[in-house]
Structure of t-SNARE coiled-coil homology domain-containing protein:
Amino acid sequence: MDPLSAISEELAEIDGQIADIFRALSNGFQKLEKIKDSNRQSRQLEELTGKMRECKRLIKEFDREIKDMESRNDPATTKMLNEKKQSMIKELNSYVALKKQFATNLDNKKIDLFDGPTEELGEENVLLASNMSNQQLMDNGHQMMDETDQAIERTKKVVHDTVNVGTETAAALKAQTEQMSRIVNELDSIHFSIKKASQLVKEIGRQVATDKCIMALLFLIVVGVIAIIIVKIANPNNKDIRDIPGLAPPATRKLLWYPR
């Protein structure tokens, strides 16, 4: 059983992660020695540098855990944990030094790659210029000026095309903005129309309700009149309905003659 597990599960977990990184660093530097291509060596070195940063972060976390537990641990345990931390730092520093060594070798290789051809090219240009006559030098200068003018013209064309593209884009954006404004206005009109239609429907509903009430009242009046007529026909001597206008029998009219 890991002695750190008896002290703290957090410390044991951090110690295991650091040990895994140290194994990966060891294997990585062994592979780095076998790689001949400088680009692949650079990528491998960057990957190992990232692992070392992660290892440094875990060691700091390990140190914080030790300080948090210092009041609960006895001096012997605290001493053992600090020695463990120092051992981790020492091993990490060894990989950092190894990384610096490989980085220096890579930089030297890059310098050799860039400096060698440059020096040869410079010597070749000097020899070429010394062997050329004045007319050849002038012709060569004119040719370089023509090439420069052509490059400038191509640059102007690119700038001109870029300006045209920008103008077309601005016009398209303006047209889209106007179209969006028209759509918003149409939506406002539709909303207003829907609101007016809703109000009209409510008014029609109220009018229909009023007409229904009037029709119901008329229906009741007609039914009442029909009922009175039926009762009068069935019982013509009923005094309760004799005085109803239009249903009472005609009164006997007497003509009064007044003498002169």
Observations:
- The chain is about 85% helix and 0% strand.
- Residues 112-130, 251-258 have pLDDT under 50 and may be disordered.
- The two ends are 156 Å apart (CA to CA).
